[in-house]
UniProtKB/TrEMBL annotation:
It holds the Pfam family AhpC-TSA. It comes from Lishizhenia tianjinensis. Residues 3-119 form the Alkyl hydroperoxide reductase subunit C/ Thiol specific antioxidant domain. InterPro entries: AhpC/TSA (IPR000866), Thioredoxin-like_sf (IPR036249). GO terms for molecular function: antioxidant activity; oxidoreductase activity. This is Peroxiredoxin. Transmembrane segments: none annotated.
Amino acid sequence: MKIGEKLPNLKLKTHQETFIYTLSLIGESNLLFVVQGKEEGVEKLLLENFDALVNENIEVYIINQTSPQENLELQRSKGWPFTFISDTKKELLRALGAKKSLLNTKPATIFLLGMDGSLQKSWKNEEFDITELLAV
């Protein structure tokens, strides 16, 4: 996706094994899609700033290619309040523009979408700055 482009409607499963449609997420808050990397630095930073994200009306979703059951186990073991989205067919990952080379990188790839579902900003293979996110 390029800046300003809108999210397509895709049917995916959450860590709770419920189906969600991506367009159903649009409208009430800004969306932060985090393509999970090999390290947990971004997730920890988001957790430390969770209250600030809520105050800024930003809802966080962790996207990866693992099964809903594996995501549930990860979510429970880490105690993270984020919703995990299983994208085993890489539909959302492709739509966002997370290329194959980005899916296995150490840092996470992050996409901020506005309340209308359009891409506002992305951080790809760059140092993620939470203050920049909260200022958007």
